[in-house]
């Protein structure tokens, strides 16, 4: 047996949708606030990652420059007349025998360095060390130049 409903028994109130409207406005404001806050947090996380990579790249550049200065000052490994082998960060690299020598090193933290030693001027040695972090893909580069 089916029950019959009559439309004439329904009562409509002018204030009937106010609570629903207030709830929708409150949820919308909360959603907008949370999206803005999450966008700010994501930006800060990316910025801190860039700072970490910048620090690693700088330390890689510093390590490469220090290694080149050490081997040049202690044993003249970057001589323009005869080639030799240097060892930095556990890696052996052939250098020397030309006015300009270059070598690359990889470090255990994922950073690397490219070092160029220029002895083309007899009165000055220029060491250019460019650190990268990470070594591939989107990377941060920091460089140092040593003159003596």
Features:
two-stranded antiparallel ribbon, 1 helix, rod-shaped, 148 residues, alpha+beta, single chain, four-stranded antiparallel β-sheet
- How would you characterize the largest beta sheet? 4 strands, antiparallel
Contiguous helical run count: 1
The overall pLDDT, averaged over residues, is 86
Q: Could you state the order of secondary-structure elements as H and E? A: HEEEEEE
The total of beta strands comes to 6
Helix content: 25-40%
Low-confidence stretches: none
- Evaluate the radius of gyration: 33 Å
Strand order of the largest sheet: 3-4-5-6
Taken together, the total number of domains comes to 1
What is the rounded distance between the termini? Answer: 104 Å
> What class, by secondary structure content?
alpha+beta
- Portion of residues in beta strands equals 25-35%
Choose one word for the global shape. rod-shaped
Structure summary:
By secondary structure, the chain is an alpha+beta fold.
Written overview of the protein:
- The chain has one domain.
- 39% of the residues lie in helices and 32% in strands.
- It has one helix spanning 18-75, and strands at residues 83-88, 91-96, 100-106, 112-121, 124-133, 140-147.
- The longest helix has 58 residues, at 18-75.
- The radius of gyration is 33 Å and the shape is rod-shaped.
- The mean pLDDT is 86.
